[in-house]
Design goal:
By secondary structure, this protein is α/β, with parallel strands linked by helices. Among the domains are: about 200 residues, P-loop containing nucleotide triphosphate hydrolases (Rossmann fold), CATH 3.40.50.300; about 180 residues, Rossmann fold (3-Layer(aba) Sandwich); about 100 residues, Winged helix-like DNA-binding domain superfamily/Winged helix DNA-binding domain (Arc Repressor Mutant, subunit A). It is built from 33 helices and 17 strands. It has a seven-stranded parallel β-sheet with strand order 3-4-2-5-6-1-7, with helices on both faces. Strands 8-13-12-9-11-10 form a six-stranded parallel β-sheet, sandwiched between helices. Helix 5 links the parallel strand 3 and strand 4. Helix 17 crosses helix 19. It is globular. The relative contact order is 0.07. It binds adenosine-5'-diphosphate (ADP) and zinc ion. Zinc ion (ZN) binds next to helix 15.
């Protein structure tokens, strides 16, 4: 079998996926065929599989160098769950743990070893290397080797000398989501890659819908958004620690479960916030850009930027943390002119060289252009990253502009004329105060109550008027100076409006709708997953991601073969969790008999997505065919062989038939001695849950037998 076919088979069997994502196959082939390789893929593009599958196909051990300590553990946990022996070495381990792992590694117990770059030159690691055959080194987040990258790590410079010492030299592959030319040429040089094959995959992420909203009241918007999507997990990025703290407080007061993450918190506080978010204990995390490197949580449904970030690279990386599982997700940027000033200020304060500063200013300008563009947002991001001729996406806020325009020329004129009369010397809040006719002392001290525009908007609240001014700033009618106390001034457009040459329209925000609407079974399965995750001490998405649960909640798999058709369910996951989820689905259906009628019919294309169907039987009748063969005397093994089914599947068919009321010769299904044991275990627990019952029995007794006994005795309906 060719390596491509092998790779394809592993993708199905181990990961439970039907097709490679763009680029994955090429990268895997290149590595397996012995070439150094560079893969530039967007966040969430699926880089891990690109080195994990070669690790399985190549002889010896694969080293994965990664700077992301928290991610290593999750990846190793996830690999364990699909049956791949892997471990990691980093500073979180005690010396004993470290030694134990090194010992096992030298005995060839692992196919993948994740290692933090700092560990590379420890003597114990060096001596380990000599006892291993390392056939492949994958360098994850390889932009860390470049000074031009946003995350330079000096320890990455130890990778190349290490490779030189290994003989024979392993294949080396570098992975990153940073696509700039400087970074790429640096990676090649600093890692001493030999004539690498280089693959770029499109940065398009079709499941993300992008929006930019200018001049909205951010807090109201966010609150409303969170109310509209009450079950979904999301990240809200703020520009500063203070804003993160304040917004968290505001949300908590509004009854939203939110955590905070920024560099001003203690290590343990940060760790806790991160874990609670990963484990689905807090739904929302409000964070600065310190949060996210190495966050692998796949079910982040939205990323809201409370402020504009400093450049498109940062923006797309952060926004890209939404929807890694490929499910529909939203990335929303709330723009305010103040954000630009903050970024300029930070740049000025930085100790970058003049040349570098100029470059950063250009990047900032591109970021602002994105915030103002009328074109498709997806296309503009992709253009920025060098992809040309991209068709409008049809899902971003510019493509789906359903905003309602209202003519606010008159109000705008009042505001502009007030600013003019105040001689363009005041900030937003003072202008609003004059317009609404505030009685504050300061107004009288400055004799602003004498102005003809004093109180001309007295039917509105000061906050509302402030929002309107901010909107006019965001739309470039007004400008804000760069001073410590920024002053509002009129731009050309405002002058034209005052002259009656231009009209002003206010766009009210898009009608908010839910990102995804999940059914009740999905919520139930999420609870099952959470419980399992808690028992096993891993984040829920390590068990199954949302995409898998969502598919289960629609397709209602009842048998092994049906379960294996669900995206993300491979053989090992089936063995570990399959029956538990089937059980949960059945219990749910018993309690909600009308549920099926509420489901939309499954689209035909997805019904046909059956990677390994070996039979063309009518699905519905498949289990009855099994039953008929069984009743005619064929053994389970014989039926399995003849119909190319797994024995477990045949068993599941029979149990399903029994549940539907067909007669079954139970003695042929249940070994004689087992029934009494199983019933005893059940009576002790008094609970129709397979896992605890199984745990109270000798390990030779299979789930299938337990279920058969429960059905036979009318305990499981
Ligand atoms: P990256 O490291 O590039 O950000 P990951 O390797 O973490 O991305 O993959 C993101 C998500 O996509 C993971 O949940 C992964 O299981 C899933 N994934 C990867 N490849 C595929 C595929 N071919 N089909 C479906 N899902 C995939
Ligand atoms: Zn678009």
């Amino acid at each position: 079998m060719s390596t491509s076919h092998e790779a394809q088979r592993l993708l199905h069997e181990i990961y439970g996926y039907t097709a490679f994502r763009p680029g994955q196959q090429q990268v895997i082939d290149s590595i397996v065929n012995g070439h150094d390789t560079m893969a530039i893929m967007p966040t969430g593009g699926g880089k891990s599989i690109c080195y994990q599958i070669p690790a399985l196909l190549l002889p010896g051990v694969t080293l994965v160098v990664s700077p992301l300590i928290s991610l290593m553990k999750d990846q190793v946990d996830a690999l364990g769950r699909v049956g791949i022996p892997a471990t990691y070495l980093n500073s979180t381990l005690s010396t004993e743990e470290n030694n134990e792992r090194v010992r096992k590694a030298s005995q060839g117990k692992y196919q993948l070893i994740y290692v933090a770059p700092e560990r590379l030159d420890s003597s114990i690691f060096r001596s380990l290397l000599h006892s291993l055959t390392v056939s492949f080194i994958a360098v994850d987040e390889a932009h860390c080797v470049s000074q031009w990258g946003h995350d330079f790590r000096p320890s990455y410079r130890m990778i190349a000398p290490l490779i030189t010492q290994l003989s024979p030299r392993p294949i080396v592959a570098a992975f990153t989501a940073t696509a700039t030319a400087e970074v790429i040429s640096d990676m090649k040089e600093a890692l001493e890659l030999r004539d690498p094959n280089t693959y770029f995959t499109s940065f398009a992420r079709e499941n993300l819908s992008l929006s930019v909203l200018r001049g909205v009241n951010k807090r109201n918007y966010i609150k409303r958004y969170l109310q509209t999507n009450p079950d979904d997990a999301g990240i809200i990025y703020t520009a500063t620690r203070r804003e993160a703290d304040q917004l968290t407080q505001y949300l908590q007061q509004a009854g939203v479960q939110a955590g905070t993450y920024h560099a001003g918190l203690r290590d343990d506080q940060r760790k806790e916030a991160q874990e609670r978010f990963l484990f689905d204990d807090t739904r929302i995390i409000v964070a600065t850009n310190a949060f996210g490197m190495g966050i692998d949580k796949s079910n982040v449904r939205f990323v809201i930027h409370h402020n504009m970030p400093k450049n498109m690279e940062s923006y797309y990386q952060e926004a890209g943390r939404a929807g890694r599982d490929g499910e529909p997700s939203e990335c929303i940027l709330l723009f305010e002119s103040k954000d630009v000033q903050l970024q300029k200020y930070l740049l000025e304060q930085s100790d970058l060289t003049q040349e570098r500063k100029a470059m950063e200013y250009q990047k900032l300008q591109a970021m602002m252009d994105y915030c103002y563009t009328q074109q498709c947002l997806t296309s503009s991001i992709l253009n920025y990253f060098g992809e040309t001729l991209v068709a409008p996406c049809g899902t971003c806020s510019n493509c789906t502009d359903t905003t309602e325009k209202s003519d606010i020329t008159l109000e705008a004129q009042k505001i502009f004329s007030c600013i003019k009369r105040m001689r363009e010397r005041f900030g937003i809040s003072m202008i609003a105060k004059v317009l609404v006719g505030s009685k504050s002392k300061r107004i009288y001290q400055l004799q602003l109550e004498q102005l003809p525009t004093y109180g001309v908007m007295k039917d509105q609240g000061a906050k509302e008027v402030e929002d309107l001014i901010k909107f006019l700033i965001a739309e470039r009618y007004l400008g804000l100076t760069d001073d410590q106390y920024p002053v509002v001034f009129l731009r050309e457009q405002a002058v034209q409006t005052l002259l009656g040459n231009e009209k002003v329209y206010h766009k009210t925000t898009r009608v908010m709708s839910k990102i995804v609407s999940d059914n009740a079974l999905f919520q139930e399965l999420r609870q099952v997953r959470k419980q399992l995750a808690q028992d096993e001490g891993v984040p829920p998405y390590v068990i199954f991601n949302d995409a898998s649960l969502r598919e289960m909640s629609i397709r209602l798999p009842q048998t092994e073969e049906e379960m294996l058709l669900i995206k993300g369910v491979g053989t090992e996951k089936w063995k570990r969790y399959g029956l538990l989820f089937i059980e949960a689905i059945q219990t749910f259906l018993q309690h909600h008999p009308d549920f099926i009628t509420t489901l939309d019919p499954i689209p035909v294309e997805t019904q046909l997505l059956t990677p390994q169907t070996k039979e063309n039987d009518n699905k519905e009748a498949s289990h009855l065919l099994t039953l008929a063969q069984f009743q005619q005397g064929a053994s389970i093994t014989a039926i399995a062989n003849e119909r190319q089914l797994k024995e477990r599947t045949v068993e599941a068919h029979l149990l399903r038939s029994a549940q539907e009321g067909f007669e079954i010769n139970w003695d042929r299904l249940i070994p004689e001695q087992h029934e009494a044991l199983i019933l005893a275990a059940y009576n002790q627990l008094q609970e129709v849950k397979l896992k605890p019952i199984k745990e109270n029995l000798p390990s030779t007794i299979e789930y299938g037998t337990i279920k058969a006994v429960l059905i036979k005795n009318g305990i499981w309906k």
